Amino acid sequence: MRILSGIQPSGDMHLGNYLGAIKQWVNVQNPEAFYCVVDLHALTLEIAPEVLREQTLDCATTLLACGIDPEISAVFVQSHVAYHAQMSWLLECVASYGELSRMTQFKEKASRKEGYRVGLLTYPVLMAADILLYDAVEVPVGDDQRQHLELARNVAERFNARYGDTLTVPVGVQPAAAARVMDLQEPTRKMSKSISSPLGSILLLDDPSDIEKKIKKAVTDTENEVRYDPENKPGLSNLLEIFSNVTGESPSVIASRYSRYGDLKSDVATAVIEELTPIAKRYRELRPDVAALRSVIADGARRAADVAGPVYQRAANAMGLL
Ligand code: TYM
């Protein structure tokens, strides 16, 4: 099945990225799956060129370390396939200013900085281009990307209504549990690369002792009943969701086995450490071989361009470009 998803190379990858997105990518990978390190998106916020270069390689390595097999799926860097920027322009002439200025992530990020970049506003159009260029049927993402995905669907439908049936309308897919991993210190806020406190997010390359410390110190509540109740017990429910994603059991079933928070935390820590340790090990093996990595992403870009080129042409023709 044709699948596309993307991740920004904008800092250390965390447990939310893994459980919400990358793990799903591994599970659904197939020769029609395209996984993209979206370096153009990272330019919407301040990032030093040398940092972006390194983080793009870090991010591609993370995908491989998590289990994406480049012999099966295509792993590539967004800026290596020029159709993304070209398609984005076409779609900017389909999307409206109003719908972009209503995007929650835009409003949050724009409110943090005066003189924000125009790219921050048009960002979801580039994301729509990423998706629509591949005729993606499914887009596995975390819950925080739902609104952007809805925009991609709306843009595709509007395009088709205006220019004839041209683009595939995709659907977003979320994992059953941990679609929105919350900050361990502030469990009403999502775990995030940019604003989480040091103890709030578990990084994929954290040492086991740090993972254990962060989970043991996770903010819960003052009751002592282990119950899955995201509204009233967000901290505890977050731990149950993480555990659920790792083991495949439902959060309520897991909750029913515990009577003490401390015991639950110990077992969550063990499960997360078991899940992440092989990933960190593999990352450390792969990251030094930059030549091998570059060859993987060059091959990925060729495969991506083979699919994206004809779709771009279809869209350009439909709009009347010669
Ligand atoms: P990004 O780089 O912020 O995150 C990458 C993926 O990780 C998921 N994610 C989470 N899932 C659960 N809990 C969390 N706390 C959490 N934080 C992040 C995100 O939902 C995402 O799936 N705009 C996108 C990148 C993008 C993209 C695309 C995605 C660009 N083009 C095309 C899909 C298709 C982003 O910034 O993700």
Terminus-to-terminus distance: 32 Å
Q: Quick one: CATH superfamily of the largest domain?
A: HUPs
Number of DSSP strands? 5
Order of strands, main sheet, comes to 1-2-3
How many strands, which pairing sense, and closed or not: the largest β-sheet? 3 strands, parallel
Which small molecules are bound? Answer: tryptophanyl-5'AMP
> What's the CATH C level of the largest domain?
Alpha Beta
**What share of residues is helical?**
40-55%
The overall average pLDDT, rounded, is 96
Protein architecture, described:
- The protein is mainly alpha-helical and 322 residues long.
- It has two domains: 3-178 and 289-319, HUPs (Rossmann fold, 3-Layer(aba) Sandwich), CATH 3.40.50; 208-284, Tyrosyl-Transfer RNA Synthetase.
- It is 55% helix and 6% strand.
- The chain has helices spanning 15-28, 39-42, 49-66, 83-92, 97-101, 104-111, 118-132, 146-163, 208-216, 234-247, 251-256, 261-286, 290-319; strands at residues 3-7, 33-37, 74-77, 138-140, 171-173.
- Strands 1-2-3 form a three-stranded parallel sheet. Strands 4-5 form a two-stranded parallel sheet.
- Helix 1 links the parallel strand 1 and strand 2.
- Helix 7 crosses helix 8, helix 9 packs antiparallel against helix 12 (261-286) and helix 10 packs across helix 12.
- The protein is globular and about 70 Å long.
- The mean pLDDT is 96.
- Bound molecules: tryptophanyl-5'AMP (TYM).
- Tryptophanyl-5'AMP binds at residues 4-8, 16-17, 20-21, 38, 41, 127, 130-131, 139, 141-142, 144-145, 148, 179-181, 190-191.
- Tryptophanyl-5'AMP (TYM) binds at residues 4-8, 16-17, 20-21, 38, 41, 127, 130-131, 139, 141-142, 144-145, 148, 179-181, 190-191.
